[in-house]
Predict the 3D structure of the following.
Amino acid sequence: MRKARVIVSWSTGKDSAWTLYRLQQMPDIEVVGLLTTVNAAFQRVAMHAVREVLLEAQAEAAGVPLIRVPIPWPCTNAQYEEAMRRIVYEVCPQMGVTHMAFGDLFLEDVRAYRETRLEGTGITPLFPLWGEPTDKLAAQMVREGLEAVITCVNPKQLSETFVGRVFDAAFLSELPEGVDPCGERGEFHSFVYKGPMFRHPLSVVVGEIVRRDGFVFADVLLAERRLECERRRGSY
């Protein structure tokens, strides 16, 4: 049987990472790429604000090629859609892509948008995590070894004290009532550095906490990169 060739919409966070993990367990699927939009002005993953070097490290750990989609900042919806259109109609055919997988959980409007954009392209959308109770899903992620840093918090929905923390059982137990355990409504975003979808963990540290555009961000660094920076500072 010919395997479906799938690219994963990759945010660097836990839901896309768990989507990859689920697909890796399906014998009729071959994951051929991780698709990520990157803010061209700052070389960071859009919204999660993760440095591009960390994105590259994740792809290497997963053993899956990275497909970058550079977008301007600020970026209009039209500019975003044009960038994605080029991937769908130019890059995907060259790679023989048959499916695109998303880590969406329950937001019907988001799923409908993705389905509409892919309609007629020859690429079938997949939603491996769709409809699963998010409390049970989050607990499963932690139980089965996923580790992540909370990189972004919307302070209107969740206290900024949660930014920079590890996504673990303690984090989940302390979430206020009304906050989705997977942050599906945009309460928080994450960066995965360890899990069963990776061949090896990444060594990371949390750097500066900054407030920008109404959100609070934690800057995550590769541990060796931080040591390199500290050495350079000490040499002057």
Summary: The mean pLDDT is 93. Residues 22 and 142 are 15 Å apart (CA to CA). The longest strand covers residues 29-39. Strands lie at 4-9, 29-39, 44-45, 66-71, 99-101, 124-126, 147-153, 188-194, 204-212, 215-222.
